[in-house]
Design brief:
Layout (H helix, E strand, L loop, with lengths): L2 E3 L6 E3 L6 E3 L6 E3 L2 H9 L14 E3 H7 L2 H11 L24 H25 L3 H22 L2 H58 L2 E3 L4 E4 L4 E4 L3 H8 L6
Helix pairs in contact: 2-3, 4-5, 4-6
């Protein structure tokens, strides 16, 4: 730890952090650091590992993660990287898209056949009831032609019924999907505010961890992370616990 004697009372002052001015805790005088000490502070050369008291294998964690050789230190960089918290997903639910199949040509022809069949029955009724021979002959001929056309079209009736059953099933699934969407959306509305507050708290906690992580150094000799200014260190395996212990508590 670097020290400097107070210019007013002569008491020793511990130099902490990267500030280029210090304040005496005894007399309260603020003074600037000498030029040689200021250069050491700016370069970080005075910082040493609290475990081995050396700085030849000391590297800043943020610089190692962002600029390190990933090929050689892939596992180390992965362990030194500060992980993002698992935030709650605040995306509102969306209804399931259930497509209702359109009416095909088969179903349309069957529908046309049913209409023509009704016309055939009407022509037959007119054929039976008519007393005029010409009208009766015309209605009979029309009834035969219309009946043949309707029979050809009604051959597609089974396929049309299957298609209509599929359309009915799709409409049922669409109603069920919309009901499920309503339940999910009501649940989302109930839980949105608590989840958003939890996300904000996790974000603030992560920002506090990030400030501590940005000041961390890694010692290759002792395989530890440390805060040289504070003289604190911990094994690399306990980096998360170390950062959490140094993180300031959230302000309400």
């Amino acid at each position: 730890m670097l020290t400097l004697n107070c210019s007013q009372c002569g008491a020793p002052i511990e130099i902490r952090g990267s500030a280029l001015t210090v304040k005496c805790p005894y007399c309260g005088v603020t003074q600037a650091l000498p030029a040689d000490l200021a250069r050491q502070i700016k370069s970080g050369a005075w910082m040493v590992c609290p475990v081995c008291q050396e700085n030849d294998r000391l590297v800043r964690v943020s610089a190692l993660v962002t600029q390190g050789n990933v090929g050689q230190n892939r596992d180390l960089i992965s362990r030194l990287t500060l992980k993002e918290p698992n935030y709650f997903d605040l995306t509102p639910p969306r209804p399931e898209d259930v497509q209702i199949p359109p009416i095909s040509r088969t179903a349309a022809s069957a529908l046309f056949g049913a209409v023509v069949f009704v016309l055939s029955l009407l022509s037959s009724w007119l054929f039976i009831r008519s007393e005029d021979a010409l009208v009766s002959y015309g209605c009979g001929t029309l009834s035969c032609l219309v009946g043949m056309v309707s029979l050809l079209a009604l051959m597609n009736l089974p396929s049309a019924l299957r298609e209509e059953a599929a359309r009915w099933q799709a409409r049922k699934q669409q109603r069920q999907a919309y009901a499920e969407y309503r339940r999910q959306y009501e649940r989302y509305q109930r839980e949105f505010l608590p989840m958003r507050q939890a996300n904000e708290n996790m974000k603030r906690e992560h920002e506090g961890r990030l400030k501590i992580w940005d000041k961390l150094y890694y010692c290759f000799r002792d395989n530890c992370i440390c805060l040289p200014v504070e003289g604190l260190s911990a094994p690399l395996e306990k980096m998360a616990e170390f950062i959490e212990a140094q993180r300031p508590p959230l302000e309400e």
